[in-house]
Amino acid sequence: MVKFNSNLIMTFLLFTAGIYLILGLILNIPLSETMFITGLTLFFLIIVVIHGWKTLGPRELLVFFLIAYSLTLIYEFTDGLGFDKFVNCRSYYSDLLGPKFFGKVPYIIPLVWSISLYCAFTMTNIIFNRLRTTHKFEEIVTGKWFLKIFGMGAITGFIMASWDLITDPVMVKMGAWGWTCEGHYFDIPIWNYEVWIEIPLVFFVIYNYYIYRVKKSQSYIGGEKKSVYTLFVVILYLGLLILYSIYALYVEIVYAIPFAAITMGTFAVITVVQFYRYRLK
């Protein structure tokens, strides 16, 4: 019987995704083209599912995606729980990203959110040394624990918002979505980034409460060996930076690249340093 190495499968899928992207560039396919972006999303989704299966476990991974997808869809569909009325501005999606939920939010959007949230969630746990060598829950839950979780949720939000510094400018330029009001950052309202911090924060608190209830922790790939394949989330995170930077050049919004590169690069470096710091311990 052939035994598959999940770590090698993730590596192969990432390599294949790179070839897929290069072919897309050669064929001059825009990132906003429905089938093309769906293909890239599926590559990233499979990698995240394999990674999450090993670090969270199958049940916890399923709950992760259910909460992430539902929460994001609710925020998107209700325009930030009615925040659009407060700022007199709402977002809208074109038909470039495929079928929409009740004609408003493309189904692929909450999926992309969920994939990115997993990367940001795991990076935050690495930074704050919350990964364990087993799934056994070892934390002591107190009032300070909830405050810590709230703060870590905010960090997760900043990790996500850093990615959006380049995602939104590229996709707006390609006509995938936009806003009904004038924005100051590549036609994007600044308050949009508050939502990018808020959704991960809310998710982080909800999911960690679930983890506490079921007494499960996220673990390193490899258990006590703390495999470096755990850092695959950083590779995906930076892969998204590279992907959107290429298309930022494609649509001629070069100035968006440094903002994302500096912030995303900083979070990536901190994650890697913290991983090796705690791994050596």
Number of helices: 9
| Strand percentage | under 5%
Percent of residues in helices comes to 55-70%
Mean pLDDT: 90
Q: Please give the radius of gyration in angstroms.
A: 19 Å
How many E-type strands? Answer: 4
Low-confidence parts: none
- Order of secondary-structure elements: HHHHEEEHHEHHH
How does this structure look, described?
By secondary structure, this protein is mainly alpha-helical. The chain has one domain (6-280). 68% of the residues lie in helices and 4% in strands. It contains 9 helices and 4 strands, in the order H-H-H-H-E-E-E-H-H-E-H-H-H. A two-stranded antiparallel sheet has the order 1-4. A two-stranded antiparallel ribbon has the order 2-3. A hairpin with a 3-residue loop joins strand 2 (100-101) and strand 3 (105-106). Helix 2 (34-55) crosses helix 3 and helix 5 crosses helix 8. It is globular and about 50 Å long. The mean pLDDT is 90.
Compact summary:
The protein is mostly helical and 281 residues long. Helix content is 68%, strand content 4%. A hairpin with a 3-residue loop joins strand 2 and strand 3.
